[in-house]
Amino acid sequence: MNSFQPIPNVVDHGDFLRDVIEILFSNVVFAGHSNKVVLWKQPESLKDLFDFSLDQIGVTQEKLLVLIKNTIKFSVKTGHPYFINQLFSGLDPYGLAGQWLTDALNASVYTYEVAPVFTLMETKVIQEMCKMIGPEWGDGMFCPGGSFGNGTAINLARFNLFPDIKLNGLTNLPKLVLFASEECHYSIHKFASFLGIGENNVLSVNTDDVGQMDVSDLEQKILEQLGLGNMPYLVVATLGTTVRGAFDPLNDIADVCKSYKLWLHVDAAWGGGLIFSQKYRSKLNGIERAQSVVINPHKLLAVPQQCSLLFVKDKDILHRCHSKGAEYLFQKDKYYDSTYDHGDKYLQCGRKCDVFKFWLMWKAKGSMGFARHVEALMEVAEYFETQIEKRPDFCLVSKRQYMNVCFWYLPRYLQGKRNILNNTSQLQKVAPQIKAVMVKHGSVMLGYQPLKNLPNFFRFVSQNSALTKEDVDFILDHIADIGRAVFP
Ligand SMILES: *Cc1c(COP(=O)(O)O)cnc(C)c1O
């Protein structure tokens, strides 16, 4: 037997790939309302039902096709209208086509040499979005998620103050502290820890009863830290908080940052998609006054996972902070203008091409298409909130400011009660129990969480503009039906 086994040739596997595409078409792409969101199995039983084994000898293509079907069968259908579990959903045809194309080309975007089209495309998309943020905005980078973008910004802000750390590290630095609201995304703490700042040096600023940062508390905490001899250097404001969809008062925060000379980073991972809508752009007012901004097109704009960008006002800072000039990749004596090689401003080396699916969607729909998408979603969220307010078996957690509608289902014994928060321990159990029933049915996946002193509540949020008012009615009736059965 020949011991040399060549890599199978894709060309000889045309039939196999066509079969796979056919399976994807019938089981994923065109699987509609009538299918389940998930065929739920506990981990131990999934281990028995699915063949995870790996052996010396490979299996036949027929077996592989069965495994592929089973993978789809037991996976969550995130494109299903009743997948409302996360801040992404929906399956955009142009986005999917874009993702398929970049996977087929197996592109990696570090140099013009290996990614000519995608390099120029990234520049174009970054430039266009910089213009939308503000006239002075200089550059941006694609990120493997908003968490990574936030972390990069935390580091850029520190580098901006102490450029010497790039070569000499963190010794001799004063004790740096940063500020973010108590409802900020947890990536701020994770990356503060990762970067050697420490989670305890992320000061939590109080939020009001709808979830917005309290700016007087911010200023007081800055003064407190200065009094302790620590060095405030960064404020993270959130536009569209993850749970409640709150928008921090950006202009007031920018004023504070200006008077204390602090870097302002805006985490608009969730809210930033509004930048395409004339109607709602004002919710982002003040964004141009920041030094850095994160926007996730893979959330509100429904670009397939992942597509996330960090923008910076200072157009050279990404290069100054990140570049290393590796000579095997970024040779200075290339046969083309090597300033087109953007890879060195990134922290990654090889990098997935996330621009194409976004660009293709933008090209297909136009900016107006994204605006219409966003505005349609807001209408559904408005309708959802109105229905909650009308029904005695539901109760809003706080007034809606965005797509997020946070609400409790009220068992009969709590309906009509003046202060339902006196029943926190009972309410805490309601959402998890109803969710468990829904997931076991495979009917609806809807997220829940506690927040501050508020017991577990559901969060409705949609990025899927195919979701209709009838769907909203179905979801609420479904929760109420389960609620009546579980809490008679
Ligand atoms: C989702 C989210 C993030 C993190 O984005 P990922 O792409 O999931 O890493 C950061 N900030 C806010 C406000 C978010 O909602």
UniProtKB/TrEMBL annotation:
CDD domains: DOPA_deC_like (cd06450). Keywords: Decarboxylase, Lyase, Pyridoxal phosphate. Pfam families: Pyridoxal_deC. InterPro entries: PyrdxlP-dep_de-COase, PyrdxlP-dep_Trfase, PyrdxlP-dep_Trfase_major. The gene is LOC108565547. It comes from the Eukaryota. It comes from Nicrophorus vespilloides. PANTHER family: BLACK, ISOFORM A, GLUTAMATE DECARBOXYLASE-RELATED. Belongs to the group II decarboxylase family. This is Cysteine sulfinic acid decarboxylase-like. Its cofactor is pyridoxal 5'-phosphate.
